[in-house]
């Protein structure tokens, strides 16, 4: 199958397939008649694996490592568990940071409900943002 046929069957773009070819995650055969890249059912299975792994938070280098271990006849499962554990820790930290940001946004919106609109001056652009730490005020 062609790049576009493979992409369609996997539910990705042709550019995604081309990117995976450039990074070595997919290695197509060349059609001897026209030099076009040709893909097989095994390429489709590999591409679907990549899509699933990415949806679980694995990076392309992670996936390359998994493929390498499998190609050597080694079980990549221990490495998969280790990578997933690391990713879960990273995501938990990001969630905490986003929740803190959200709480700060809520606090700002609550304060700003009672503050007047102000005209920008040469020293100030928007007192709501500039004065958030100090409680904000207009500097007219």
UniProtKB/TrEMBL annotation:
Residues in HTH merR-type domain copies: 1-69
Signal peptide per UniProt: none
The species this protein was found in: Litoribrevibacter euphylliae
Coiled coil found in the keyword field: yes
Name listed for the protein in its UniProt record: MerR family transcriptional regulator
Record Pfam families: MerR_1 (PF13411)
Superkingdom of this protein's organism: Bacteria
Gene3D superfamilies for the chain: 1.10.1660.10
Statement: the UniProt record of this protein carries the keyword Disulfide bond: no
